[in-house]
TrEMBL record:
Bacterial type II secretion system protein E domain residues: 574-588
Keyword ATP-binding: yes
Gene3D superfamilies (UniProt xref): 3.30.450.40, 3.30.450.90, P-loop containing nucleotide triphosphate hydrolases
Origin species: Nitrogeniibacter mangrovi
Pfam families per the UniProt record, alphabetical: GAF (PF01590), MshEN (PF05157), T2SSE (PF00437)
This protein's record includes keyword Acetylation: no
GO CC terms, sorted: plasma membrane
Molecular functions (GO terms): ATP binding; ATP hydrolysis activity
InterPro entries the UniProt entry points to: AAA+_ATPase, GAF, GAF-like_dom_sf, P-loop_NTPase, T2SS/T4SS_dom, T2SS_E_N_sf, T2SS_GspE_N
Family affiliation: Belongs to the GSP E family.
Protein name (Swiss-Prot/TrEMBL): GspE/PulE family protein
Amino acid sequence: MTLAAGKSPTSGGVATRLAFFKGLQAITTRIHATHNIDEIIFELSADLCELFGAERLTIYTVDDARNAIVSKVKMGLHKVNSIRLPISENSIAGYVAYAKKMLNIPDVYDEAALRAISPHLEFRKEVDEVTGYHSKQMLVAPIVSNEKGELEGVLQLINSVDGQPFTPIAEEGLLGLAQTLGVAFAQRTKAPAAPRSRYDLLVTEAKITREELDAATRKARERKVPTEEVLIEDMGLGQEEIGQAVATFFNVKYEPFHSDRIKPVDLLVNIKREFVEQSHWLPLEENEEGVVIMATDPEQIRASRVAHNVFPNKNIVIRATTVREFRKTVDQFFEASLDMGSVDDLLSDLVEDEQDSSMAEELSAAADNELVKLVNKVIVDAYKQGASDIHIEPRPGKEKTLIRFRKDGTLVPYIEVPASYRNPLVTRIKIMCDLDISERRKPQDGKIKFRKYSPLDIELRVATLPTAGGLEDVVMRILANSEPIPLDKLGLTENNLSRLMSAITKPYGIFFVCGPTGSGKTTTLHSILGHINTPDTKIWTAEDPVEITQKGLRQVQVNRKAGLDFATMMRAFLRADPDVIMVGEMRDHETVAVGLEASLTGHLVFSTLHTNSAPESIVRLLDMGMDPFNFADALLGVLAQRLAKRLCPKCKAAYHPDVAEMSNLLDEYCLDLQMTTPFKEDADAARKAVAKQWQTTYADKQGQFTFYKPVGCDDCTKGYRGRVGLHELMLGTDDTKKRIQERARVAELLALALEEGMRTLRQDGIEKVLAGITDMAQVRKVCVR
Ligand SMILES: [Zn+2]
């Protein structure tokens, strides 16, 4: 642009004036060259702002019903909904549309000045309030078509860059621009050759009338569905006709849904389903033309340049598609196809074979199309149902092979497979993970990269075990490539969350998460890492296996066969300039020692332990031979954790516990507090204090508590759905450090931690019962001593 950026045409010098109008002329020429209103808005907004020295520009067009103006929003750049204003004296832009007069307002918050223009004129402060943007100067002009003087829209400049009122030169320029746009808008909307909506081809090709299209658009708006849904469902139009119309409108090729499309794994590496669904574009393939992209609104993708940012230095080929076909393709790429048929159908397709078969026959049976489909279906179903493991349990003789899923920690039967298929079934799975199919007497383990067999991108860790009668069991663990859960979504109480935050944001030290297998330790560690994962931090992790991946982390998979154990990796990390190190687990003296050393040399170290409680972990580590002084120095904290089943929020039944139940619960809670000073001094008073605390936190206005019982519905398993973490967080406080140096016993450490505000796992569980999240049976189940 010819005018210096940030300088509004205020100084009034001849040179400025000339430069301004020369710039305006260039834009006018470009307006004449564009094809539709959206293109004008998308391509020229930034240049216009610069030319006029304005911070923002809004272009309104007249609504179809002609009683309101609607702002055209540049999608994808900032998330502002379009603004709709009645053509009336009640708003600034509305007034300009109503009176067809230009307004130049030095300060829109100056109510007296507005009232001098019209007694009804008001500035709508809501938008500023929502966006946090402060509007001041406004220069607003009506866009009127020349011939009939009909209103086409409104052009609004907001806030001058230099903070001064918009100048007469700006006024003159804006009027000229409004005229140009008036002509352009009138031409683009009225000329039949230039479609104004993406479905206009349907009208020009006489598949529907203009009135029908308008009616469909209105109906779609009422039902809040895409217009094409109404066109297909109510008016019987074909998907392809609509796709062609959309493509013609955007002047690109139409890209239909193809059921046999192969998922472009390489292009989708860093792209998540949510992103695709929100941004409405999807890469399909890379060919000699470039990266081919499917979009429901090619203009938007082009304008936002988002695809160019995702695939820098690549040619982007945008193709148009319908909303339906877009969604189907997203499903196809991000989820296993749904049309696999039911598992029962697949089972009935398996041919019963009475004879015990030879290896050759088994191999051919394992390659049997129906069996292949069945195995895929089992895996897909397990994944969709949120199962963590698949158990395949062949039984001797003619008994069927049982397949069970572990969901939320409990095994549930899934299907039974005919006895004759037990060997081919196991063989098929072994083939999928490259195990030795002839070896049946030794346990084997391997890994399935499932995306080789299905659009579903997950990995499975497979373990086979020889069982009685020459059979083999198979257990598959689903390693969903999941993302970390935000720290505040882990189910920590407020107190624990703030204490945890304070511990993990220290510059160095060591922090442990402890609990038995399956207690969610890795999930918690990743949430913690997610919280401190910033671009200026180098985080190395050694994991076995890598189950959760995070951008920014450098994650290494442990490979004991190749000599890469935790201790070796940690030493390698220390040579690789880390800030933070996470080690999957610390089981032996050597790993702990290296970890301690790392934390004492200025690194933040995280790991897990297979211990039951937080105080016990400390004693265990000291027993492993750690120097108490070094260890006390380094210790940031220990978080013990369990997962308790969560009551299904849909079907759980509320009840008020009676006095006896409350009293038992209180006893159970206070049991852990017996060693603390208040209980040693006056147990009764201390118990009452806890009861009072519960009253204020959890009881309703009548002083009643509400508990829940499990019921069971279609959405859950026996009244439970998902799990909630129970936590016991012990911090490395000064007093704790001192006791560690004195080699205090577990009970002493526990009493001290409780006095300092720690809650035991059971107490945390009881608080979650009081909060209605779970029930006591589940808490007791995971908090056994
Ligand atoms: Zn339920």
